Fold:
Amino acid sequence: MTMIKSLSRSGLLRTGLLRTGAVALALGLPLASARAQAPAAPAPAAAPVAPETVVAKVNGAPITAGDLAIAAEDPALSLPGVDDAQKKALLVDYMIDLKVGAQAAEAAKIGDSPDFQRKLAYFKDKLLLDEYLEREAKKAATPEAAKALYDQTVKAMKPEEEAHARHILVESEDEAKKIAARIKGGEDFARVAAEVSKDPGSKTEGGDLGWFTKERMVAPFAEAAFKMSPGQVSDPVKTQFGWHVIKLEEKRTKPVPTFDEMKEQVDQYLTRKAQQDLILKLREGAKIERTAAAPAVAPAPAQKAP
Structure:
């Protein structure tokens, strides 16, 4: 049981590749079958296709390369591991199914219902807002703004100490004392950790926890580790996880991350801030009226003094 905070892992959804699964892909249904396919040889790069180029027709209604490009941006149609040629072919099949279904829905007057009109208005507003925010955010998240924010952030960062340590986790103090004696008697820490440690996250690495700052560890462990000198082995240390024997490998001042390492975070911050500021500005300039039918706005929770 490692004490370093774990990171959540996002799962990946599997997607079918067969023509018979085009509708299933759109609806998120499982495919009935799949055939193993040998990897195709890389195709030569195709010349760019104009968005207005017609790739198929359904009862005379065109499907264009631009339509395919929009479908390709839909997260629900993500096709990881599929080469471009297969993906384009599947998207054409999907767009044909979509067009066939949409034409049938039009004939059935589905679009005339009040509920559908409300949905249509909602998604139109949402798409308009998303596109507007994206365009305006690009004006704020410039390379110059990103570099300026990075410089400002780095300048405000305080030097922070890091430790590189190993540990062995056991259930009792007696076990920990015996292990500490073995190591102080000359046995290799990493070998003993692999043999007896109860921490599955580090025992296969010889108990290595890597580099960490003080707040990333539970208090008793952190206090012991940061008081030690490089090469020193601790007496048993108790935490809620059990008893630890710690070996401090190194200490250092935490390196300042480079601009390249932080660029993605900086760009995301600038984008979100620009979008938030824009919405607040638009609200301030708009005449907004809540009627008696609107739900009451819940009061913000009281802020506790630090």
User: Anything to note?
Assistant: The chain has three domains: 18-27+49-112, 129-157+258-283, 161-253. Strands lie at 54-58, 61-64, 161-170, 208-213, 237-239, 242-253.
